[in-house]
Amino acid sequence: MYKNPKLKLLRLLVLFFFTVSLSQAQQYDLNNKESVLTVLGTSSLHDWHITSENQSGKIVFTNLNTCEIESLNISIIAESLKSGKSSMDKNTYKALKTNKYKANTFQLVKIKEVKYNGNGKFSVKSLGDLTITGVKKQISLDFNMNITSDKISLVGEKKIKMTDFNIDPPKALFGTITTGDDLTIEFSTIFR
């Protein structure tokens, strides 16, 4: 069929490199402008929330079609958490010890279960290391994932306690306003 051995070799090399590139891991970077992470809490005066303005991370798949995640990491710059109130932000940064701990992170440890829901949508149950103020705790984290041709979205929430991460719930006005220990972290994280 092939009379020219050089042409045959060239076609085999092209086929080989094409096959290798298909089997390589696929990496997506967190898009900070499209991603939203909000921390919700309570106090003796009113409920409150703060939102991250600066986060980064990567997700790597060994198989995108079946949602086989090789790695996932997210980093939140601690002083990018903003409430719209400077006094509250200062109390938050003091509680998070941002002079020493510049970022809070999540690092995937293990995928426990992936359920396919059709049309590139998956429900994922995972374990990961959450590090806040230098304290690392392994947590379970469940999220919904939507995979399209150029975008990966992760949506979910996680309840935690400040004291689990050696954070003293902030107080204001000489202790007359106290913050509740329970927090809910809501996230809609976009990777491209």
Automatic annotation (TrEMBL):
Swiss-Prot/TrEMBL keywords: Signal
Keyword Signal: yes
SUPFAM superfamilies recorded: YceI-like
Domain Lipid/polyisoprenoid-binding YceI-like residues, every copy: 27-192
Leader peptide range in chain numbering: 1-25
Keyword Signal (UniProt): yes
Pfam families: YceI (PF04264)
UniProt superkingdom: Bacteria
Identification of the protein by name: YceI family protein
